[in-house]
Amino acid sequence: MPQWNCGCENCTLARRGSSVKPRTQDSLLVTGEHGNLLVNASPDVLRQIEATPALWPRAERDTPISAIVLTNGDLDHVIGLFSLRESQRLVVYATDRVWRGLMLENAMAKTFARFEGQVTHRRLAIGERCEVAEAGLALVPFAAPGKPPVHLPGEPHAEDNVGLRVLHAGRVATIATALKDVDAVRSSLEGSDVIFLDGTFFTSDELVRQKLGTARAEDMAHQPVRTSVEQLAAMKFGRKILTHINNSNPILREGSEERAWIEKMGWEIAFDGMEIAA
Ligand SMILES: [Zn+2]
Ligand SMILES: [Zn+2]
Question: Which ligand ends up closest to the CA of 13?
Answer without folding.
Answer: 1
